[in-house]
Amino acid sequence: MNFGIDKQTLDELNLLGKFRSGSVYNLFNQVKTRGGEQLLDKMFRSPMNDVREINERTDVFYFFQEKQLTFPVDAQQISLMREYMDSGAGSNLSMVFVSTLFKKLLSNLARDERYKKNIQGLQAVIAVMNRCYIFLQNMPAAPDIYRKRIAGIMKVLSDSRIEKLRKIDIYKSLSLTELVYFNHLLKSKLYTEIEDVMDFIYELDVNIHVSAVACRKGFTFARAFRPEENIFSAKDLRHPCVEKAVGNSLVLDEDSNVLFLTGANMAGKSTFMKSVGIGIYLAHIGFPVAAESMNFSVREGLYSSINVADNINLGYSHFYAEVVRVKQAAVEASSGKRLLLMFDELFKGTNVKDAYDGTLAVTEGFSEYKDCLFIVSTHIIEVGAALKSRDNIKFAYMPTVMEGSRPRYTYQMNEGITEDRQGMMIIRNEGILELIGD
């Protein structure tokens, strides 16, 4: 069972992208090393669907958030160590000796930099190993799931040969013999073990800096439950990338698996839906979520239809693009998968009558899939009255508070169906009719 999510949903929720403004990935990308960034990227692109694995990762993150540990290694030294390990050495000690001697001769005769870089790389390895060893010696008691990992790294760092390396004074000149010996040791005999230490340092980088974001932003960690329980419960859930975002609470389960959300344009419906989608995605990668608390049953996928655009290349109008999107969602839901599906302002590309009929029919149809969770938003409030007989549909709205002739949006979700109709008032406030009249 894989977690399914398509490009449109990823884009609508702005989940990925190192260079995308305001992306969720960028929010958490505070890592210091290139290897840490690669690991972060891999985690972000690999949602998990195993309850145990999700909760174990969140437990590790929570430990680092609680202890507020500082990353122990200098990023530049890690880069030098990475270059050193990637430069290769050869499995035969005699060949390593000849190669190192040749580089030393070239450094004297032709100002070749490779010998100097070799020494700098080994010095970086010594510094990194020492800092990592001291860090782990002083590290507070970790969760059970993480202790085995720490013990494995400590075993490598405590190896008598590595201990000999760690005791070298990096400010003193290294002899050719020492350089050859440790080149062969690190790049051949203990290559796998040293690579594991580097992987552990990248893990530290991610664990410490993702947890620091959680601490600074006041995020928490969701708890995963079996898919069969079919629950979603969040308290004070908000959009992680919106400063001073207003939080809302939501509970969905098999007996009330559809949220029908109404409210005026700009009232906050889309942002709320994005908050739920982002929260679910972050929870499935074990990352902190922007909520006071959150529990969820593992989903098999996430599907949204929030900013559907026309497709000129395929000859799709906006309305037809919406229809295609809903059809894709219907195929996924009818396959028996346990999904979260979100539809914002269904069929806004057609006339009000067709939008009413389409929204009603689609909401009724999707509500039959009790293993899935749905959020449907619209400003066509009449649809809500026609759905009242459905026991598994919850009704909520984003209110508009009128202050004189000016609307104010609280972004605080209330139970029920809105009666707000301020569209013409906003048009008048903007002076559009006067401009047309002139």
Give the arrangement of secondary structure elements.
Layout: H1 7-12, H2 24-28, H3 34-44, H4 51-67, H5 75-86, H6 93-109, H7 114-137, H8 144-157, H9 160-166, H10 176-189, H11 191-217, E1 223-225, E2 232-237, E3 248-252, E4 258-263, H12 269-284, E5 293-297, E6 301-305, H13 318-334, E7 339-344, H14 352-366, E8 373-378, H15 382-386, E9 393-398, E10 400-403, E11 406-409, E12 414-415, H16 423-429, H17 432-437
Parallel strand pairs: 1-5, 4-8, 4-9, 6-7, 7-8
Antiparallel strand pairs: 2-3, 2-5, 9-12, 10-11
Helix pairs in contact: 3-11, 4-11, 5-7, 6-10, 8-11
The number of strands is 12
Whole-number radius of gyration? 28 Å
Query: What is the CATH C-level name of the largest domain?
Result: Alpha Beta
What is the number of domains?
A: 2
- Quaternary form: single chain
Structural class by sheet pairing and helices: alpha/beta
What is the fourth-level CATH superfamily of the largest domain? Answer: P-loop containing nucleotide triphosphate hydrolases
Q: Major sheet, described briefly?
A: 6 strands, mixed
CATH architecture of the largest domain: 3-Layer(aba) Sandwich
* Run of helices and strands: HHHHHHHHHHHEEEEHEEHEHEHEEEEHH
Could you estimate the helical fraction of the residues in percent? 40-55%
For this structure, the CATH topology of the largest domain is Rossmann fold
Which parts are unreliable, with pLDDT below 50 for 5 consecutive residues or more? Answer: 310-315
Q: Which range does the strand content fall in?
A: 5-15%
Mean pLDDT: 85
Count of DSSP-assigned helices = 17
Strand order of the largest sheet: 6-7-8-4-9-12
- Globular, elongated, flat, extended or rod-shaped: what is the shape? elongated
Through-space gap between termini: 62 Å
